Predict the 3D structure of the following.
Amino acid sequence: MPPRASSPGAPPVASASGGPGGAALRTAALAAFVVLAAALPQLPVPDFWITQANYIGLYALVAMGLVLLTGVCGLTSFGQAAFVGIGAYATAYLSTALGLSPWLNLAVGLALTCVCALVLGWITLRMSGHYLPLATIAWCLALNYTMANMEWLGKFDGILGVPPLSLAGIDFTRARNIYYPIWAAALVGAVALLNLLDSRPGRALRALNGGVTMAEAMGISTFRYKVQAFVIAALLASVSGWLFAHFQRTVNPSPFGIKWGIEYLIMAVIGGVGHVWGAFAGAAVVKLVEDQLQVLLPRLIGTAGNFEIIVFGIVLVLVLKYAPQGLWPFASSWLPAPRRVRDWEHAPPLAERARPAPGTPLLEVERVRKQFGGLVAVNDVSFSIRGGEIVGLIGPNGAGKSTTFNLVTGVLAKTGGSVRFRGEDITRLRSRHIARLGISRTFQHVKMIPAMTVLENVALGAYQRGGSGIARAMLRLDRAEERRLFREAERQLARIGMASQMHEPAGNLALGPQRLMEIARALCADPVLLLLDEPAAGLRHHEKQALAGVLRQLKAEGISLLLVEHDMDFVMNLTDRIVVMEFGTRLMEGTPAQVQASPAVRAAYLGTEH
């Protein structure tokens, strides 16, 4: 579960193990829930209860996909109902028209859903802002309209007589029997998502919600992960549709329209859009309350209609205002907060890059230029860095220092000029490709994931040093690699004096420790060249001294550094050379002593040569 200080919509760190008491209690609670779920059909409860539970399980599967897509990745979609329809119609048609086995139909339906999700995701996920939800509404309407107007799909009447599931002679026409495959699918899906979120690709997915700049700088292909999250959410919806078709024994277009796309999103938000178990809470609340409203509202109003949608709209607004994290965080607050078990102490170290020899040409920036319309932010700036060297980039506010950083690291496209790194032209490479070559960086304004722990934020920096993908993470086959990544993250935190804070939520840190955490994250990438944007800002005097010692140690290890900093004492006592910028141009370059003695530099900072 997420830390108590997590931000609204923060993804869970659900599979992180807690201390002995907290972990045991959470495990016991989960075991009790599974036992109760398994025993429910065998208890003397009304059949209506079992039917309601079946619907809750089906809805939770779809809502879980939205937890991943919207809560974790920050991608709003109203189109999940259409993927439920693809799974339902695929098995209904193949079962009735071709007589294929429902289990074979499941594979066909998932394959069809995957193809549709890849195509739609490739097109729509390039959009951002309000264009993305609008696009999902458009293709949801299009797919639903297609289902309703195809003669071979029964048009608006749909397909009748869908055969029941059959396995080992069990009669799945009974609600109490089909309950088990529905809830088995829901619980397996939940565990798989929890495993995913507590992994290398899971941290990459969670980095998408705060923007892509930081994630790309860690070597993460953000678009690829968006598409993968979109496909996973679609596949979960398709499984729900497959089960729905064999549970209802009939399909028609009405449950797969935009109304249901909105309701699934409401379920995720009310339950807790950033929390996997919130999908179950939201599905249960919406289903049970909706049924009661459908009985009570017509009596109160005196006429029939779908007035429960109005009530849910009001409830959604209230939830977003007063409980933006939904119901699950409130329910889980009664359980102890988790704490990850430190099981990586004896894990093998990660492989490291070879360092360039001292004095070897490393980075060559030639006449780089950046224009924003008529504004020239960086005007033909040139400088170079050699192996084992610390170079400072200084200048008054607005001189173009951070923009130059963004040009070197590929965050911004260059209007002109070139950049070479270790002899290779990287002028047109994207930031993730540049990061994979051995250039790592921090940011002027700290970029992190507040809901993740310090340790997890730093481990994100080692993303490119691992190789486990989403499938291995879901099956929890990546634990050996995870231990190696966390071992490296703790080593870098210890280097900057923050090992004691590794289990703290990153959002709880003050600005100074956040900057130190960013440096540890950048070091986790095993860089050859480290770019630090105002690393000493917000640090106290003794912390600056400790940081300077760390940077000198990095230099001794063969790592070159380029840093932007406004603390002149820090810069002058640390750097080998300094490049001074003013109004986007290079004013001068020299040793700290030469820069201090320069009348031009004094004029730039003080407005006078005297």
